[in-house]
Design goal:
The protein has 358 residues and is mainly α. The mean pLDDT is 87. It has 3 domains: 3-51; 60-138; 163-341, Orthogonal Bundle (hpI Integrase, Chain A). Helix content is 51%, strand content 8%. The strands form 2 sheets. Strands 1-2-3 form a 3-stranded antiparallel sheet, with helices on one face. The protein has a 3-stranded antiparallel sheet with strand order 4-5-6, covered by helices on one side. It has helices spanning 32-51, 60-69, 77-90, 102-114, 119-138, 163-173, 190-209, 213-217, 248-258, 280-288, 297-309, 314-321, 326-329, 333-355; strands at residues 3-5, 12-18, 21-26, 224-225, 230-235, 240-245.
């Protein structure tokens, strides 16, 4: 037996050589007999792998954790953790990867679609499972030969707000608006007034900065410089920072809020922490405004579309939105082409008039 104590550790270590290679592992136990049994089992497993062609097994859950750990320092790490939770909820992740079947994946697809999850989100989930499966195979674990379900990602018309739609939305978010179930403004409690004002201010900031919801909802006062009218916007999703200049109405909102500033966050929850994802009031306002086909992300599309339609290039808009890949910004290219086409028409009209005989 090759069970030894190492250094000041209280645990027994398993140490042996097999086929010219040294294997060392902590047994994580202070019981020598248990450690010796673990050595026997480990040797048997390695022998089966090396001489019988039998690979070590790994569960889907462990494969997911192992793969996601390799992405810890990437911008997508948080999204992978969220996807992992959904997978764990609907698939038995204790199942070994070599027993995972297309039926398991098709059932997961069916259940997610029943929850109203779109094709793009579903595709991201399968990309994660596929990545974990490939990574486990690369590490030498036993894996099934899998075919992944086909996921159709429909091409939606790019949705953005017209000027009239924006006005309707802001009217439905007006903190002083009257409506069914609302007390007169002077009778409303402080929390309700703050909640309604927060929703209005947040939407204006999203419209005028084109930022992602989380980037504004969780922003700190330290990132806001009223004297220079600048916002240092940190983008966790892509791990970069953009300096944005305040529009007039954003400046007015931030200056007003600075007068009653409490704590480090611009928008805070009841405990004084960052607002987090609390979008119910905005979602209801969109429906009241007749914009049920819109989401909070539509506000980001709105700014980008307006900038392109008013002469900014795709590359300039990319900097404002903080995209790391120009391909993401190219969804607005058809708007730029329309602007260029109109510009070309005006130039030709001008030249044609100049060439007309007097």
């Amino acid at each position: 037996m090759s069970v030894v104590k190492r250094g000041n550790s209280q645990y027994w270590y398993i140490q042996f050589q097999l086929s010219g290679r040294t294997y060392i592992r902590s047994s994580r136990t202070t019981n020598k007999k248990i450690a010796e049994q673990m050595e026997i089992e480990w040797k048997a497993k390695l022998h089966a792998q090396q001489f019988l062609g039998k690979r070590e097994r790994i569960s889907l859950g462990e494969a997911l954790r192992t793969f996601i750990a390799t992405k810890q320092r990437t911008p997508n790490y948080g999204n992978l953790l969220s996807l992992q939770l959904a997978i764990q909820r609907l698939i038995n992740v204790r199942k070994p990867l070599d027993e995972l079947t297309l039926h398991d994946l098709e059932r997961f697809k069916r259940d997610r679609e029943a929850e109203g999850i779109g094709g793009q989100s579903l595709k991201h989930s399968f990309n994660l499972i596929s990545g974990a499966w490939k990574h486990a195979r690369k590490l030498g674990y036993a894996t099934a030969d899998l075919d992944f379900p086909q996921v159709k990602v429909p091409k939606y018309r790019l949705r953005f707000l017209s000027d009239d739609e924006e006005r309707r939305l802001l009217m439905e978010l007006d903190p002083r608006r009257e409506g069914k179930g609302l007390k007169p403004y002077h009778l409303r409690d402080t929390d309700l007034k703050r909640t309604m004002q927060d929703a209005y201010d947040l939407v204006v900031l999203l419209l005028d900065t084109g930022a992602r919801y989380s980037e504004v909802a969780n922003i700190k006062w330290a990132q806001i410089h009223l004297d220079k009218r600048e916002i240092n916007l940190w983008r966790p999703k892509v791990q970069n920072e953009t300096i944005l200049y305040m529009t007039d109405r954003v400046y007015v909102i931030l200056k007003r809020r600075s007068a009653t500033q409490q704590g480090p966050y611009l928008f805070r929850n009841k405990k004084g922490g960052p607002r987090g994802y609390a979008s119910q009031a905005i979602g209801k306002a969109l429906k009241r405004a007749g914009l049920a086909d819109c989401t909070i992300h539509t506000l980001r599309h709105t700014l980008a579309s307006r900038l392109v339609q008013n002469g900014m290039s795709i590359y300039e808009v990319r900097e404002i939105l903080g995209h790391t890949d120009i391909k993401t910004t190219m969804r607005y290219a058809h708007l730029e082409q329309r602007h260029v086409s109109a510009k070309a028409r005006d130039i030709i009209d001008t030249l044609s008039k100049a060439a007309e005989p007097i």
